[in-house]
Design a protein that fits this description.
It comes from Clostridium omnivorum. This is Metal-iron-binding protein. It is globular, with a radius of gyration of 16 Å. It starts with a strand and ends with a helix. By secondary structure, it is mainly alpha-helical. The chain contains four helices and two strands; from the N terminus they run ββαααα. Strands 1-2 form a two-stranded antiparallel sheet. The protein has a domain of 123 residues: Ferritin, core subunit, four-helix bundle (Ferritin, Up-down Bundle). Helices cover 52% and strands 2% of the residues. Bound molecules: zinc ion (ZN). Zinc ion (ZN) binds next to loops.
Length: 183
């Protein structure tokens, strides 16, 4: 199986690698989500269909939007990585850690779209000021809301049909992260 959004090959061994980041768990009999980027199963196909992120020619406006989206996803990935170290509950640690890997996958999708050499390293921010799991969850929610606003704000400026589909699905994944965080 292959995910058309992130281009990753999905094997039965990998279907639950990020299960703490999802509301429903994949099983051998039903795959709900791509375990790497969180796309829903309508984007998961058998065989060698071309993924949506290869061979797109982006215009300058699109490039700028995608490059910034890449940085935003890295920023959120970095936050979740640190939050997973700071959180005390095992369940929340696991969730943050899975969310971090998913946000980095989103960053790599954008990296591929804008043909950026490698993922840039952002300034390291210290999140130790957030004292407890409640505060970390609150911050997580704010970051997801920010990402959703970003995608909403710029989706109308994207002309490339494949990129439109990708952004719409990534936005849906972030919306689901809010439901997960609020659970
Ligand atoms: Zn995927």
């Amino acid at each position: 199986m292959k995910c058309l959004i992130c281009g990753m090959e999905i094997s039965l061994k990998s279907i639950n690698v990020n299960k703490s980041a999802f509301l429903k768990s994949n099983s051998d009999s039903i795959i709900y989500y791509c375990p790497f980027c969180g796309a829903i199963n309508e984007y998961i196909v058998d065989g060698d269909k071309m993924d949506l992120l290869s061979n797109n020619k982006l215009n300058d406006v699109e490039l700028k939007i995608i490059e910034h989206a890449m940085k935003l996803e890295i920023f959120n990935g970095d936050f979740y990585k640190q939050a997973s170290e700071l959180a005390s509950s095992k369940e929340i640690k696991d969730m943050f850690s899975a969310l971090s890997r998913i946000e980095y996958t989103h960053a790599r999708i954008h990296q591929k779209l804008c043909e950026y050499g490698e993922l840039p390293l952002l300034n390291k921010i210290d999140y130790k000021r957030y004292q407890n799991d409640e505060e970390l969850l609150q911050q997580a929610k704010l970051r997801e809301i920010h990402a959703i606003h970003y995608y909403n704000k710029y989706e109308g400026n994207i002309e490339n049909p494949n990129v439109k589909v990708i952004l719409k699905e990534l936005k849906r994944v972030e919306e689901e992260h809010i439901s997960l965080i609020e659970k």
